[in-house]
Amino acid sequence: MKNKFFTRNICLRHNLQVHQEWGIKMGEIDYSRPEYYLNRELSWLAFNSRILGEARDKSIPLFERLKFLSITASNLDEFFMVRVASLKDLVNAGITKPDISGLTPLQQLDRVNAATHEFVGMQYSAYNKSLLPLLSQNGLMVVEYHEELTDKDCAFVDRYFQDYVYPVLTPMAVDSSRPFPLIRNKSLNLGALVSRKTKGSARKLLFHKKAAQGRELEFATVQVPSGIPRIVELPSAEDGTKRVMLLEQVIERNMDKLFLNYDIECVFPFRIMRNADFSLAEEDTEDLLKEMEKQLKKRQWGQAIRLEVEDGIDKRLLDIIKKELMIDERDIYNIPGPLDLTFLMKMYALPGFDALKTEQYVPQQVPELPSGVDIFEQIKKHDILLHHPYQTFTPVVDFIKQASRDPNVLAIKQTLYRVSGNSPIIAALAQAAENGKQVSVLVELKARFDEENNIVWAKMLEKAGCHVIYGLVGLKTHCKITLVVRREEEGIRRYVHLGTGNYNDATAKLYTDLGLLTCDEAIGEDATAVFNMLSGYSEPLGWNHLALAPLWLKEKFLYLINREKENAENKRPARIVAKMNSLCDPDIIKAFYEAAAAGVRIELIIRGICCLKTGVEGTNGNIEVRSIVGNFLEHARIFYFENGGSSELYMGSADMMPRNLERRVEILFPILNPELKEKVWHVLEVQLRDNLKAQFLRADGTYAKTDKELVTKENACCAQEEFCREYRAEATMLEKEQRQARVFKPEYKQE
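The structure corresponding to this sequence follows.
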């Protein structure tokens, strides 16, 4: 099912009106000028560089550094498949309109390419010069060259190839009858130059890179199978050192067994990145699910936009690959090491190296929601704040599970953007439908790189009897909201969960997010209105507490920022503290500049993209931007406005980006309970004190950590570690109180 209530034109017209209403010029300073903005793509690359900084930080446990390096590689892949691909599409279409920083698509592409080549160099410098030697020193040797193998190793590797790898491989030669094969997106491949054996010719040495004179060379390739572990464990050394080898090297060593009628002239790995971005003509699509399935199949064969090859590749082999893939020279990356460093995440999981990892944090129990408690009774007592991953995600799952079994629950409504591969929430929703509840679920099919997963879940929920909505035309539904309608003695009561993160029990252990469980009547009315909008055509006349994108949220943000500006002008307390993942909406940034110029103190905690600059003329140093990259992924969105001394605090699903505010369904919700407001403010306050992991945006667009000389034993603060300590201490105290509360009742014998 699809809903055409929202249309992009309506959204853009509405937001244009909002921009005009709140656009304010500060004297002669025009804060719309390009020099006051950073480029989005370069800002993202700076964020990935901050993650790389963690991989290079010698104070971090070795295996955690491997993990961070793996994350930089995974991030870069997605960046190319979406953002770089989009820039290439604009350049190919002849678009020359500059972005907010004044750069045309071609200029952006040039700068991104230069910055990425430099970044990749730093990645492999960290891998080759720092991490590999340290791994060897700590009992894990990565065998890089075949010459390092002993006779015993060679026998093991060849047997492993014959038993486990060879049956899976599909070698492909290219000649007049066999065209160049389609190389799948992100797949790792081995390319070779081969020559046909002549009768009586001696077998050429494997890996010999000079072609035999007088023979015609042909191209051949084999895809490294993704279904076999890329890390192959070799027999341990006599001193106990664990030794590993990469799967592509095992195949490379045995390449001659795949092309029996050929002599192998040279073999080199290569990997391509394709354009994975696609757009749907949703207004003309009768079945969104089927159209999405069709488009996903095309993703593997999009335009090649990046080619990674092993440094030192034979030029003749490279020329063939480059020609067949029609790729530009500047899009070729010569890699001085193994291609695709995401394999380091698998290396991180190798057993036996716990001493080289950060101690795994166990999410703590929520005090108000111990195991087995009636969640609805607890929520009726007061609102409950959840802080993941410091607190367990289990209450959110239990909220749905209890609702699915409770005979008094009449309906469950929920939005799903990204869920885990074996989601207990999906199972609970299906069970609820089978139990006769009215279950309505909006499954966002357009959640990038989770589309296939969400299609599977949508079909499963439909089969279970749920009413499934496949997203909205022209928009992504990114808000995180669940509504449970329950029949009670006093009448119908609505229970609501609102969150800053996805309903994903797996990522909830890695991402920092906040959630609210409430049965506040006004919020319940708003939640009902949200789902009526998503499933039908019912636009409410007004809202009690919630603000929604794409029609109202941007207006709300601009109003709140402008109110702080007016307070500052009238000498009333004025301060903004905002935590988000990204900031690149030009109207919001302009409003921040104007508020700062009026005297508002603005402190921004932005993990990733930030197009706002610090030190801009007229802002008087009133804007500070910090980014925190740590063991957990900072993901919560929190917005504090001092409001003349009567502070307001909001949380939500949206970043301050045009896509979130103008092209997505998002929800901003207030924290009304004074006790919970103190808890959420504490989250901001601790992150503002972070001087170990926080990096500060400087006027030149670079980031830097606090000078070590300014960090003392007394003031040192790592926000994530502090939260871990606090929640552990809270859990210990709770356990102690529970023990003390148990009353021992001795049994007396009857006299």
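Residues 585 and 658 are 5 Å apart (CA to CA).
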